[in-house]
Amino acid sequence: MKQLQVVIASGNPVKIEATQTAFQQVFQTExxxxxxxxxxxxxxxxxxxxxxxxxxxxxxxxxxxxxxNAHFWVGIEGGVHPMNDTFEAFGWIYILSKSGTVSQTxxxxxxxxxxxxxxxxxxxxLGPVNDEIFxxxxxxxxxxxxxxxxxxxxxxxxxxxxxxxxxxxxFMQSELYDKTASET
Length: 184
Known about the structure:
Layout lengths: L3 E5 L4 H15 L3 E5 L13 H18 L5 E12 L2 E12 L4 E5 L3 E2 L2 H8 L4 H9 L9 H6 L6 H12 L1 H4 L12
Parallel strand pairs: 1-2, 1-3
Antiparallel strand pairs: 3-4, 4-5, 4-6
């Protein structure tokens, strides 16, 4: 059975666990996961779909420079996007294969409370704002905003696993997509 070398462009344990889970479920093989902290080159709190997608892509590009021989590089960027008087929160997934095939998608989204939206408009980051409101510590490395808001019914890890799997569709169904998509 072939071992997959996957680089996750983050040191966040939530993103690491979600990536490990998704790749193992999809490829049913041993996944050697390397975690590397790299810059997203966007604001700490991306405020649009576009900025969040760019952050995920930048993370992948920077990780590939450090680990050029992997089979896959994964970037996950949490962001928010304006929605009515508030923001919706989500994660953007960007996957690059060694053949150069790119696949990307985003997670489900959820509305943030108006007080949180106001803090974001004032330049604050979602994680620390949630920590203050819910009297938590470092929640973005745990259940995240979605976990706090749903009383743990949906965790940040769970929120990221599904779009990671969806972003892997071109590699699972390579005969329907680019012939270079298959890496297994």
